[in-house]
Design a protein that fits this description.
five-stranded parallel sheet, Rossmann fold, about 450 residues, alpha/beta
Length: about 450
């Protein structure tokens, strides 16, 4: 069976979970002093949950489920997996100490040794025996230049294990590119015969709109169990962002209204309130000291406020700890650059810890923001971006957030092009938002906060 990227990631997550379950049974069997019974592992379910969840937590933090990491060779995966399990063991020990929820020491040690062994073994089997032998053969249909760009994107990622055989154009269109992508024909009516003759697994359609003739041919390919994909969807799956240069108004209607998100929003709002309350309680002891340092370091107020654009293009006032000199944006300058002279000495430290963002938790409790979503921008910047970037206002379909998909995938932006790139990530989040994606963003944000990555 041909596996897709999502299926492969899901398969690896399941195999890691199975490996840890087997490892726990082995650890109980070898390390527990009492006579082994079938029900003995169930007596330590809470302990097993702690051991496995902490390991999975660090696997996500170390990007061990990224497609290019999953496809790495045995030895390339050994070090990060071992590091993740070691970090998980330390966190588990802390949890056991405070909650008194423990497993025998021998079981603890044997679990991590066997988990390392079984996880590597299962990943080896998946990569070398189940996936390595699977190769996709694809062709592109439509615009020649766009097809060449798609071929370059796919061929630059060997882990996709996909070979582009060539492209079929409509009419007499010719490719304007240096990429050596063979043209398989200029008659779209030959699509089905070419697919059958060449043993094609996937047809990627590089057209914005489809006429009736092409639609019928694509349906015929699907009846022959050939996967048919829109090129925008392929770009989205590979890069984690939506190609805004190839969108039209119909995309927003078709892509953003295909599912009912009510229950997701109820769950999201619950966790927004819960985590905001926890964050405020954790930051409260540090906040007076941070506020005092801000006041002593430079003249001006402790807090900084600004009007930002919210969901439905509704403005709201956001509050932060002041990290710049007073009046730094008096001339309507909002972009922050590397080594920005407006940032104070204390401000640089506060920005690295993200403590300046804590007052925004109040905005979350008020419902003006969410913990995860597109970054809220200043009104003057929104006005400029709306003029310069197509479909920019559509990002306000979702509530803005303190962190988001764009923030964890793209560095701090200070140009129109940076904003365009981040908008592609924002649209990916708006289209694919779900509890799992929010969890991944939350975990990777923790990594960024701990490492100080991306702060200015």
């Amino acid at each position: 069976m041909k596996t897709t990227l999502k299926e492969k990631k899901a398969l690896v997550v399941v195999s890691d979970s199975m490996a840890m379950a087997i490892s726990f049974v082995v650890a109980i069997l070898l390390g527990h002093q009492a006579h082994f019974t079938f029900g003995l592992p169930f007596d330590y379910l809470a302990g097993f949950a702690t051991l496995s969840l902490t390991a999975l937590f660090f696997f996500v933090l170390f990007d061990l489920y990224s497609p290019h990491k999953i496809s790495q060779r045995f030895l390339q995966q050994a070090i990060p997996l071992g590091t993740g399990l070691l970090a998980g063991s330390i966190l588990s020990a802390v949890v056991f100490f405070f909650l008194r929820n423990t497993v025998p020491r021998a079981v603890f040690i044997i679990f991590y040794v066997s988990a390392f062994t079984f996880i590597l073994l299962f990943r080896y089997i998946i990569n070398e025996r189940m996936v390595a032998s699977i190769k996709w053969k694809a062709i592109l249909v439509g615009n020649g230049k766009r097809s060449a760009e798609m071929a370059q994107l796919i061929h630059s990622r060997p882990y996709l294990r996909t070979t582009i055989e060539g492209y079929i154009s409509q009419g007499d269109e010719r490719r304007v590119t240096d990429n050596q992508l063979p043209c398989l024909g200029n008659n779209i009516d030959d699509l089905v015969s070419i697919v059958v003759e060449r043993g094609i697994d996937q047809v990627i359609v590089a057209e914005i709109t489809l006429d009736d003739t092409l639609l019928k041919l694509l349906l015929e390919c699907m009846q022959k169990k050939i996967k048919v994909s829109d090129f925008r969807k392929v770009i989205e799956e590979i890069t984690g962002k939506v190609p805004i240069d190839h969108l039209n108004d119909n995309w927003f209607i078709l892509a953003l209204s295909t599912s009912d998100k009510r229950y997701f929003w109820y769950t999201k709002r619950f966790f927004d309130i819960l985590l905001s309350c926890i964050g405020i309680c954790l930051a409260l002891p540090l906040f007076p000291f941070a506020a005092l340092l801000v006041k002593l370091d430079s003249q001006g107020p402790i807090f900084y406020s600004q009007m930002r654009m919210g969901r439905g293009s509704k403005p709201f006032r956001v509050w932060k700890l002041r990290t710049m000199t007073d009046g730094a944006d008096r001339n309507n300058v909002h972009w922050t650059t590397n080594n920005d002279s407006r940032i104070t000495r204390v401000g640089r430290i506060i920005r690295k810890t993200r403590l300046d963002e804590v007052p925004q938790l109040i905005n979350i409790l008020k419902g003006e923001m969410s913990l995860i979503g597109p970054r809220p921008e200043a009104l003057s910047l929104v006005e400029m971006y709306t003029r310069e970037i197509s479909y920019y206002p559509e990002r306000h379909l979702a509530a803005p957030g303190i962190t988001g998909w764009a923030q964890i995938n793209y560095p701090y932006g200070n140009s129109i092009e940076d904003t365009r790139q981040k908008l592609m990530y924002d649209f990916y989040y708006i289209k694919n938002r779900c509890f799992t994606l929010d969890l991944v963003i939350f975990l990777k944000t923790i990594k960024i906060v701990l490492t100080g990555k991306g702060a200015m």
